[in-house]
Amino acid sequence: MSYTTRLDRTAIWVGDKFHYVITVDYSSEYEFVLDNVDKEDVNMDPFTVVDVTKQTTPLSNNETRLLLDITLANYLLNQTEAHIPQLSLYYFRRGQNTTSAEQAAAESLTVSGPTVGLRSTLPPNPADIRDSAVVISWERSRWVVPAVGLVALVSLIAWLVFKKRRTAPGPDRRISMEAVRARWASGVPSDFSDSQTTMKFLDRSYLNLKEYLSYYLETDTAGLTAEEVKEEMQRLGASSDVTQKVAKVLGACEALRFSGDGTAATAESARGVAQDVREILSLDPKY
Question: 11-25: per-residue pLDDT in tens?
Answer without folding.
Answer: 888 888 999 999 999
